[in-house]
Amino acid sequence: MLSKKIFLIGNGHLGGFLADLWKILPELHWQREMMELDVATLKRVRPEAVVNTAGKTDLRWCEDHAYECFRCNVIGPVHVYRALKQALDNKVPYIHLSSGCVWDGPFRPDGKPFTPCDPPTPACFYSWTKASCDALLMAEAAAPLLILRPRQVYSPLASPRNTLAKLNGYPRLLDTPNSMTSADTIARTIEIALGSSDPRVWNRIMNVYERGSTSPFEVGTFLAQAGCRQPPEKLSKSDLDAWHKPKRVDAVLEDKFFEDLVKPPTVQEELKRNIALYAKAIGK
Ligand SMILES: NC(=O)c1ccc[n+]([C@@H]2O[C@H](COP(=O)([O-])OP(=O)(O)OC[C@H]3O[C@@H](n4cnc5c(N)ncnc54)[C@H](OP(=O)(O)O)[C@@H]3O)[C@@H](O)[C@H]2O)c1
Fold first, then answer.
1. Cβ distance 53 to 8 under 8 Å?
2. What does residue 153 show for φ and ψ, rounded to 5 degrees?
3. For residues 221 and 170, what is the distance between their CA atoms, to the nearest angstrom?
4. Alpha-carbon gap, residue 120 to 6, rounded angstroms
5. Which of 71, 205, 238, 244 could make a disulfide contact with 147, Cβ separation 3.0–4.6 Å?
6. 94 and 50 Cβ atoms separated by less than 8 Å
7. How far away, in angstroms, is 199 Cα from ligand 1 center?
């Protein structure tokens, strides 16, 4: 349950999902350019928390439009945080959506999953922008700041940006371990953080995911079992790397603080629950 008046930024796959789930009123849902959000608007609206889901997410587009990608993924979110701090005296929490793809895994060199303290190892320009923005925000954390790093976000929505829709479309899929994060797990994490009296929730980076790991091939198999597609064939990483530009990253995440706080379900449970709803949404 949401305990605070949220000002939501962005109307993409995740922003749309959250706006619907939390029944965000139009005056509290910023769907315009991030850089146009000003101190006066925030003073007038007086939110109790700001959640920023806006950003450029198409990896190839980000390589080809580097300046625009940097403006949207780095300058924009930092501008919003500065405006918020100034408007509301460093008191109102800012929750920013970063990404678990700041690491190029699937595992660290020692074979373990990535924790929020591990230095980013970005493999493409999009990942560089996400890691840079996190560093800049953390360097000037004053108003309560929480940076969330989900991985391969999915939901029951029939949106082309939904990871389930993407994996439903490829005949061959990798069988490499990966973390995944449902939009519901992100929503619950935000609700729990905002309702928590634990000061350790703030001014930190949190990995956000369901427990365990899965693979694109396993997701494709679940989608086939739900009648959404034909069973997938396996694709090798070297085959994919030969043509997929920029390189696709794999990353398995871990975060003890997050798991204790949110107690996420296993990724297989959460995938099957979402896929059953997704199948209905696409009429299967
Ligand atoms: N999708 C994933 O699997 C995934 C995984 C990890 C983290 N994340 C992060 O989670 C957040 C939400 O992702 P998503 O899946 O909802 O992505 P999405 O569907 O692409 O939504 C992002 C939205 O932000 C908008 N936007 C871009 N630049 C903007 C600007 N300067 N001002 C205002 N709006 C702007 C985009 O508009 P246009 O469509 O016009 O560009 C789009 O509507 C992003 O920060 C993303 O990096 C996503």
1. yes
2. -70, 135
3. 12
4. 29
5. 205
6. yes
7. 28
Q: pLDDT tens for residues 3-23?
A: 799 999 999 999 999 999 999
Tokens of 177: 């371990």
Tens of pLDDT, residues 45-85: 999 999 999 999 999 999 999 999 999 999 999 999 999 99
50-to-46, 108, 121, 147, 189 alpha-carbon distances in Å:
10, 32, 28, 12, 14
Judged by DSSP in three states, 87 sits in: helix
Task: Please name the fold of domain 6-153+181-211+247-265.
Answer: Rossmann fold (3.40.50)
Q: At what angle do helices 267-281 and 216-225 cross, to 10 degrees?
A: 50
pTM higher than 0.70: yes
Domain ranges of the chain: 6-153+181-211+247-265
Q: Which of 144, 122, 183 is nearest to 133 (CA)?
A: 122
Specify the DSSP element, H or E, that contains 207.
Answer: strand 204-207
Q: Which residues sit with their C-beta closer than 6 Å to ligand 1?
A: 10-15, 33-34, 53-57, 72, 76, 97, 99, 150-153, 161, 163
Contact 143, 93 (CB under 8 A): yes
Question: Is 47 within 8 Å of 93 (Cβ atoms)?
Answer: no
**What SS3 class is residue 72?**
helix
For the chain, report the end-to-end CA distance as a whole number of angstroms: 31
Task: Tell me, in angstroms, the distance from the centre of ligand 1 to residue 56's CA.
Answer: 5
- Is residue 122 a contact partner of residue 133, using CB atoms and an 8 Å limit? no
CA distance 247 to 244: 6
Average pLDDT, integer, range 139-168 = 96
Nearest to 183, CA basis, from 48, 31, 16, 26: 16
